[in-house]
Specification:
Blueprint lengths: L4 E6 L3 H10 L1 H5 L3 E6 L2 H10 L5 E5 L7 H10 L6 E7 L3 H9 L4 E5 L3 H45 L14 E8 L7 E7 L4 E9 L3 H19 L5 H15 L6 E9 L4 E7 L5 E3 L5 E3 L19 E4 L5 E5 L1 H4 L10 H10 L6 H16 L8 E8 L1
């Protein structure tokens, strides 16, 4: 059953209480309405204190001890957005009625009270009160969602490697740094790196289609599958083929992910990689020359179950740097709707050959910030950089 609408009638005329009980007897009897009565403003405030769920007050203006205008001021101080006050006074007391309306009263009725008109006024007040309650309910839901998203953001950041340098025992052989900045509370981008054995390091960067919670969940699943398979499979091609098969089987609402997955051999400097529909990384040579890795024939991951993924290889010399990124970097837009693009990225990279991976990431981030200005970030911005020392 719906909770009763609770009324407080504040009036020093005894017959008002009888009139209210008589006119609204059916709704009172059915439990729709519940009335409380007081004979002056001070008594009314005491009743309101004991019953804070009262939502409609019928308040006379001229009363002893505390008049209606003073009580209205006290009620306003309670800052209850659902509370509606209907002022009651003699027809000739329009000056006080105007003061009450200017001070926030919902409506007014004049004595002798036209109960049918008052009934319509009450129905109008109830509709507004219901709207306020619905708005408050939606607001609480939004607050709960914001808290959930904040927690999800912390979890998402936690599952991504954040300790640099990640492998202190081989810091003389390689440098690694990564960064992920979500456009919203949570993102669909991810990166990862992990040791396969003493000589080989796995590198992953991915971008899930879509935004929000579905993309974040699919991102977590994608990262988990690739890491798990990476420890089992003999090649990057095999890992991506199996990951694609698993993600295709578990994908919902046509979700997919673009992935660049590679294994770097610290002894030989050979990078074996498989690009599943992702932005081609840049290879920054020690002499400052940049090369964009060739686009492969592989498609996106998680869309076509039977796809076989092919791998490629390149030789990284000492001082060479591999710069992996998501399309949030090159597609960052300024106020003129211009994209940051690969030319600006290439220009920044050419001056970074002797810099650390951390410095390279920060230089790219600064370049993007300068380019977009005050424009809102529209996509996740993620980078993973590896340098062979």
């Amino acid at each position: 059953m719906m909770a009763a609408i609770k009324f407080l009638s504040v009036d020093d005329e005894e017959e008002i209480e009888f009139l209210m009980k008589q006119y609204f007897r059916r709704k009172i009897s059915s439990g729709e309405y519940e009335f409380f009565f007081a004979h002056n403003g001070a008594e009314g405030l005491a009743v309101l204190h004991d019953h804070p769920d009262i939502e409609i007050i019928l308040c006379d203006i001229n009363m002893p001890v505390m008049d209606g205008l003073t009580m209205l001021t006290k009620v306003n101080e309670m800052q209850n957005p659902a509370l509606r006050v209907i002022m009651v006074s003699a027809y000739g007391d329009m000056e006080n009625i105007r003061l009450a309306m200017n001070d926030g009263a919902f409506d007014f009725a004049t004595k002798p009270i036209d109960m049918d008109d008052l009934d319509r006024t009450i129905e109008k007040a109830i509709k507004q009160i219901e709207f306020v309650h619905q708005s408050q309910k939606e607001h609480r839901k939004l607050e709960g969602l914001e808290k959930d998203l904040a927690a999800a953001n912390q979890i998402q950041q936690f599952i991504l490697p954040r300790v640099f340098p990640p492998f202190p025992d081989v810091s003389d052989k390689l440098d690694i740094y990564a960064s992920m900045k979500a456009a919203k509370d949570i993102g669909g981008d991810f990166y990862d790196f992990f040791r396969i054995d003493d000589d080989n390091i796995a590198l992953v960067i991915g971008d899930v289609c879509g935004k929000g919670i579905p993309a974040a969940l699919f991102m977590a699943v994608s990262r988990t599958f690739i890491r798990s398979l990476g420890m089992q499979c003999e090649s990057v091609g095999e890992c991506m083929t199996k990951a694609n098969r698993l993600l295709s089987s578990s994908s919902v609402e046509y979700m997919f992910v673009t992935v660049f997955y590679a294994i770097f051999n610290m002894k030989t400097g050979v990078l074996t990689y498989c690009n599943g529909g992702h932005n081609p990384p840049y290879l920054l040579r020690a002499n400052g020359v940049t090369e964009e890795l060739p686009v492969t024939e592989n498609t996106i991951v998680g869309a076509f179950k039977k796809n076989i993924f092919k791998e490629s290889a390149l030789q990284m010399e000492q001082g060479d740097t591999l710069v992996m990124f998501t399309d949030g970097v090159t597609e960052a837009m300024n106020s003129a709707s211009e994209m940051f693009g690969t030319e600006r990225l290439d220009h920044i990279l050419r001056g970074q050959a002797d810099k650390s991976c951390h410095q390279i990431v920060e230089s790219i981030k600064s370049g993007i910030t300068d380019f977009v200005g005050d424009e809102e970030q529209s996509d996740d911005i993620t980078m993973l950089v590896l340098k062979r020392k």
